[in-house]
Amino acid sequence: MSRKLLLPLVLAFSAQAVILLLLQPPVWGTNLAPPWCVNPGGTGGCYARIQEAIDAASSGTVIDVATGTYTEHLVMKDGVSIHGQGWLSTTIHGGHSGPTPTVYMLNIWAGTVLSGVHVTGGGTGITATSTQEGGCIAIWYAAPTIINTLVNGCTARNGGGVFVRNSSPTFDNVSAWWNEAQQRGGGYYIDGTGLVTLTDSSLFAGTNGTLVFNTAGWDGGGMSLSGITATIMGLRVWYNTAQGNGGGVELTNAPNQVLFALNQINQNSATNGGGVDAYNATRLLWGLNGVDRNTAKHSGGGAQFSQSAGLIQSNWFRTNTAGSYGGGLSVNSGSPDLIVRGNWIEDNTAGFGAGVYLQTTAAPWIDGNIIVTNTSNTAAGIGLYQAGVVTITNNILAHNVASTTAHLAGGILVDSSPARIINNTIADNLGDGIIFQAAEDVAIVNNIVSGNLGHGIEHYSDTLWVSPTLVYTAAYNDILNNSDGHYAGLSGGVHDLHVNPQFVGTGADLRAFYHLQAASPVSVTGSTAWAPEYDLDGDRRILGGSVSMGADEIAVVERQLYLPVVLRH
Fold first, then answer.
1. How far apart are the C-alpha atoms of 36 and 48, rounded to whole Å?
2. Does the bond joining 35 to the residue before it have cis omega, within 30 degrees of 0?
């Protein structure tokens, strides 16, 4: 059974193909003949300085820059392109001569190309005194194309490597290393109303498309994006640091579509959102990204999403760490139109909610994820605290570890949240399958809760701190082989079962392991009134008037009516 991906993520591959066609090296035009060349000695009729050639050139000129180091600051001209011999050969060095970028672009458009160079030495070299916007490259109200370029060792207030405002540039294979920003965007800072394309069309060849070892005093160690429409694909965002939010990527106040696909976001660190922090980004399309080994001091080791909407699908959140909440990812502050679907959330660590943490009115749809082998003190799989009407469907939560002595919630803990927990498989966790407390109107239906070290489902309350939940629904669940019994603090639900669900039960792939065998006794015993339309594989539920318990649907062929066929002649 194959997962049905939504169309926008499939289109990501088509977008990459288009970029490959569009982002070709500059075409040498009729204006290229001498003297449109630069070399360090100014020999052979060439210029000795790049800026001299730019000043003399007219639109349509491509200036060939020979191997060497050119210590100067450039102001690009509309329609005049610079073509170096590759970033290992041609260097433009600002000399750290003052608070100014090495390359400045204003009011230049799509015919202007910068390619094949190493840009460095922008700003003063000391972050605190680099008061300008943009260290290596600054782009204002422009739409240039920059390809096969390295920005390295620059300092600025915002955009240590590259600063972009109200522009629509295209970047392909533009790497940013060891840049520093006082405030935001150690590698890249991009804001305003532009349409930005930032890709590596080689898809991980060599060091292409890498953002590594950049730092930001505030947010966005690797990159900070605000307000833009963007396509960001094929990048490797590694080892970046932010003192605030978004060690790898910060995305804020983005009302337009941001497609973020096929990226690797690894080993970044921040206070919140070690890999990624998104705030008020309302048209997200995040798919096929690897988010691995990032660290947050507080919340969202892999990623944190706040007041955001869109689709987070088919990503890998692995081995991330949060000091407090949400080792894999954290969602807070509303986000009712955010869908977190089909992700693999594995081996993450946090104090609370190691796999997924939901808080402060957060109300996303958590659907069809594989949430396994995560470790926390409490709520190893999913933790909810004062969240909104969260919908949790079709997930497999298995082999998660609640490491405290009490083993509180190896699967799901619901605290003060009216969650809908429907058709999940919660099995073989170290800790209770599901705990809920002070969770008025919570619904727990059609789940398989099996083999957990603790209770199957526990309703917790005490006489001092936690009042009983007065209104809740717990029914149509299959509960068995939990070490402390089926229930605590509640009676068995209507139509609950205590039978072996007959998992496939073979192999190391936990997703396949917890699918149901065709003869499973829970294949037709769920509640159709509560069931979602599809299961975790994208297979339709409620066939033949019945529905399975757990994340996997065993399809029952509907009866078909055949009308009489009258053959004539």
1. 11
2. yes
Q: Residue 533 and residue 180: Cα distance in Å, rounded?
A: 48
Task: Give residue 23's pLDDT.
Answer: 46
Per cent of the chain over pLDDT 90 is 85
The pair of structure tokens assigned to 36 is 């449109």
First to last CA, the chain: 44
Select from 144, 167, 226 the least CA-distant residue to 191.
226
Kind of pairing between the strands at 370-372 and 396-398 = parallel
Q: Are 486 and 457 in contact (CB under 8 A)?
A: yes
Return the pLDDT at 431.
96
Residue 360, number of CB atoms within 10 A of its CB: 14
What are the tens digits of pLDDT across the range 22-50?
Answer: 444 444 444 444 459 999 999 999 999 99
Position 16 scores a pLDDT of: 52
Tokens, residue 185 = 């965007």
- C-alpha torsion 39→44→49→51, nearest 10: -110
Sole residue written with tokens 């954290």? 330
More confident residue, 202 or 80: 80
**Distance separating alpha carbons of residues 425 and 512, to the nearest angstrom:** 12
Stated pTM of the model: 0.91
Distance CA 137, CA 118 (A): 11
CA distances from residue 151 to 34, 103, 536 in whole angstroms, order as listed: 28, 10, 43
- Per-residue pLDDT for 322 more than 50? yes
Distance CA 383, CA 325 (A): 9
